[in-house]
Amino acid sequence: MTQDVKEIFANRRGTGASGGSAVAPSARATPPAPPAPAALAAKVRTLAPSMTRSMQRVAEAVAGDPAGCAALTVTGLAELTGTSEATVVRTARLLGYPGYRDLRLALAGLAAQQESGRAPAITTDIAVDDPIADVVAKLAYDEQQTLADTAAGLDTVQLGAAVAALAGARRTDVYGIGASGLVAQDLTQKLLRIGLIAHAPSDPHLAVTNAVQLRAGDVAIAITHSGSTGDVIEPLRVAFERGATTIAVTGRPDGPVTQYADHVLTTSTARESELRPAAMSSRTSQLLVVDCLFVGIAQRTYESAAPALSASYEALAHRHRSGSR
Questions:
Q1: Which residue intervals define the domain SIS in the entry (predicted)?
Q2: Neighbouring C-beta atoms of residue 161, cutoff 10 Å
Q3: Is the pLDDT of residue 295 over 70?
Q4: pLDDT average, residue stretch 231-241
């Protein structure tokens, strides 16, 4: 029996030492249900940056040609991508499937969906000389795809745990810089309007001094698309060490920020370009997660949230009436 085959069986049992380190930390606990076929491409885009180059080749192959790969055995896919059978199995597991057989079934389902549907008529690449109408269409499609990718890849178990922590928190701090800082402000305003105590310090030094005051029963949220923003990681680390429940909203589930996060909510990896170095889709995916958190919290705290939200509307109503000054 070759070493590669031993690794395949070890991975299927979940007890092998070789290959176990390639599985995401969240997969070592109770594994979530395999993603639906439609979520496969989104999963590949999200996890590809954290994969080894050989695993990336496997992931790109299955996402690029689901029908062709669905017809291949594990050996055939390994030969096609120039990798090993063990690498194929590890890639399948990292994508959320118990084994290669489950990945093949998902590929077959995805291929059937693609065959019955229409391919998008536009791409997300915007040229310097594109007419404004094309720009609007391309941006709209990109935003739509980003939201779909984020929704497909969002771990609802992690989301539920984050909602529960926030709903019962004594206080919540939200950290974000630049565009992510705007998202942090948005979440804070939403929480304040339903009667919860929340802060989103824009100054990195103030964020750290605020984090020092946190303790068990409090929540700290770090919002960083790259997962490596130092001014966001530092206050989250302090909050983590003080015993607060910590949450990371990031496009990089393998980023440094996640080592200090009790719960990780992954956003879609935005496709940026020369004309869009800070792609709007990064922020769009973060805002979707924020809205999911807010609605979940409002559901859990409805008896107090509804009157608080009504009172906030009433307090501002006169500012929106016609003719008011």
A1: 162-303
A2: 16
A3: yes
A4: 97
